[in-house]
């Protein structure tokens, strides 16, 4: 079997890379170890978590907020099994959609574990032990990432669970302890809190959402605390002991040292990040170099140090985001076809799909200060936005950061309803090098939440109208 390109992994980066390559006339094949395509994102990550976030949000709306709108539905009853079926339907629809797209674009599919056997050779090892060899001009590694483990803590996906197990619980835990206040932990903690769990989040650092804008993190934590999630920051987990009759005892102590305490939980969710998945690829055999974090090292064209082998997505440096992997997949496919693929790493949105949502793109205030870049900040609260007030969704704000000299937008940060969609406007603006005045002078429909973006842009030059 001879190809122009073989892609190992069919997550968002891999399948998009394969489809784009096929569109450009390259004979392309993919190798996928799962029975279904879509990688972690579609199978046990982005898609199922968003389905549960949506369903649990609807449950809480009916349970707590419908009466405020004049809608009397009585006391809603949770059918968790049915909710999980709803989630499964969303996963199946998406994974089957990828399968269809690969067939439509005439991409050959091989199911099994892919191993690079040498220059231009990929061995596919099936579950039954059978194998076949694919010959190819180029190889793209798009195998994604795996759950990061906490030393000394065994994940059994029953009592001590990863994000995968947290998406498959067959009951609502009375007490859920989340280790890690990053995106995944806060999203899944929100799901189970809405469904009835008492949720406590333990975080080693002194803040939630590490890496995002500091002001955003502080206000977002206040909002989640008001919703009922408890936080223990600057706290490290030193042990997790699973009881013989279920549940777990979690020992924690101050990160800086101090007296330990024990917390009880029915389920412990470990969400301390993800690590590149490169197991079984044969990288050492062919001499592909990795950095001290286990990521595959590539140049600006996604090429490794071994001729003909490329890598994209979570296995290389950069944010572990599905859309970042997709853009890299398109870029490397275009480069292999002789075109000029490109990814602007300065304009990659990041979204937390809780309620309210959190979204950001570009630089944070902390990063600009560290880099010595003078900037002006404009901020507008949703409490002053007409649509937000009418909808009763006034938590949060929009913050626009612009260069003090040129007024070019350097970063935008949003906490609020539908922030994940609102951020797209400024991402497009930043891609075209827009100034805050460009956004401010663009007519925004009324009444919409997008007006808060315009007002924040106006506020950069201290001329907001509605606050």
UniProtKB/TrEMBL annotation:
Gene Ontology molecular function, alphabetical: dihydrolipoyl dehydrogenase (NADH) activity; flavin adenine dinucleotide binding
Positions of the catalytic residues: 446
Entry EC number(s): 1.8.1.4
Keyword Flavoprotein set for record: yes
Pyridine nucleotide-disulphide oxidoreductase dimerisation domain residues: 348-457
Boundaries of every FAD/NAD(P)-binding domain copy: 3-329
Catalysis: reaction(s): N(6)-[(R)-dihydrolipoyl]-L-lysyl-[protein] + NAD(+) = N(6)-[(R)-lipoyl]-L-lysyl-[protein] + NADH + H(+)
GO biological process, one term: 2-oxoglutarate metabolic process
Cofactor note (record): Binds 1 FAD per subunit.
Disulfide-bonded cysteines: 41-46
Positions of NAD(+) binding: 180-187, 203, 273
Residues that coordinate or bind FAD: 50, 114, 143-145, 314, 320-323
Coiled coil feature spans: none
Keyword Coiled coil: no
CC cofactor: FAD
GO cellular component: a single term: cytoplasm
Similarity comment text for this entry: Belongs to the class-I pyridine nucleotide-disulfide oxidoreductase family.
PANTHER family given in the database record: DIHYDROLIPOYL DEHYDROGENASE, MITOCHONDRIAL, DISULFIDE OXIDOREDUCTASE
Protein name, UniProt field: Dihydrolipoyl dehydrogenase
């Amino acid at each position: 079997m001879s190809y122009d390109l073989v892609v190992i992994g069919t997550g968002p980066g891999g399948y998009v890379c394969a489809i784009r390559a096929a569109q450009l006339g390259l004979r392309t094949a993919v190798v996928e170890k799962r029975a279904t395509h879509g990688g972690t994102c579609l199978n046990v990550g982005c898609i199922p978590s968003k389905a549960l976030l949506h369903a649990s949000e609807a449950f809480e709306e009916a349970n707590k907020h419908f009466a405020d709108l004049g809608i009397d539905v009585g006391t809603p009853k949770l059918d968790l099994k049915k909710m999980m079926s709803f989630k499964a339907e969303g996963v199946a629809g998406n994974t089957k959609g990828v399968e269809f797209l690969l067939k439509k674009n005439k991409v050959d599919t091989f199911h099994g574990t892919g191993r690079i056997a040498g220059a231009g050779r990929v061995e596919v090892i099936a579950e039954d032990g059978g194998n076949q060899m694919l010959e190819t001009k180029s190889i793209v590694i798009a195998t994604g990432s795996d759950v990061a483990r906490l030393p000394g803590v065994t994940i059994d996906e029953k009592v001590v669970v990863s994000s995968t197990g947290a998406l498959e619980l067959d009951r609502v835990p009375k007490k859920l302890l989340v280790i890690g206040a990053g995106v995944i932990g806060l999203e899944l903690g929100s799901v189970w809190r809405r469904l009835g769990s008492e949720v406590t989040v333990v975080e080693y650092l002194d803040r939630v959402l590490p890496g995002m804008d500091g002001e955003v993190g502080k206000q977002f934590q206040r909002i989640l605390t008001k919703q009922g999630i408890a936080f223990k920051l600057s706290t490290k987990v030193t042990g997790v002991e699973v009881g013989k009759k279920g549940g777990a005892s979690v020992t924690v102590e101050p990160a800086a040292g101090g007296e330990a305490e024990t917390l009880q939980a029915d389920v412990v969710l470990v969400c301390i990040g993800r690590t590149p998945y490169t197991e079984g690829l044969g990288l050492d055999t062919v001499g592909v170099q990795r950095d001290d974090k286990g990521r595959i090292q590539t140049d600006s064209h996604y090429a490794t140090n071994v001729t003909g082998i490329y890598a994209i997505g979570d296995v290389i440096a950069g944010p572990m985001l599905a859309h970042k992997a997709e853009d890299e997949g398109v870029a490397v496919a275009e480069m292999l076809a002789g075109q000029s693929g490109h990814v602007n790493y300065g304009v990659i949105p990041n979204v937390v799909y809780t309620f309210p949502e959190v979204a950001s793109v570009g630089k944070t205030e902390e990063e600009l200060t560290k880099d010595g870049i003078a900037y002006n900040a404009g901020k507008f609260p949703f409490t002053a936005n007409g649509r937000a007030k009418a909808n009763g969704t006034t938590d949060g704000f929009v913050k626009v950061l612009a260069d003090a000299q040129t007024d070019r937008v350097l970063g935008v940060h949003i906490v609020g309803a539908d922030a994940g969609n609102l951020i797209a406007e400024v991402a497009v603006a930043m891609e075209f090098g827009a100034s805050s005045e460009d956004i401010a002078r663009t007519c925004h429909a009324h009444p919409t939440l997008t007006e808060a973006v315009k007002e924040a842009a106006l506020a950069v030059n201290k001329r907001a109208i509605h606050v």
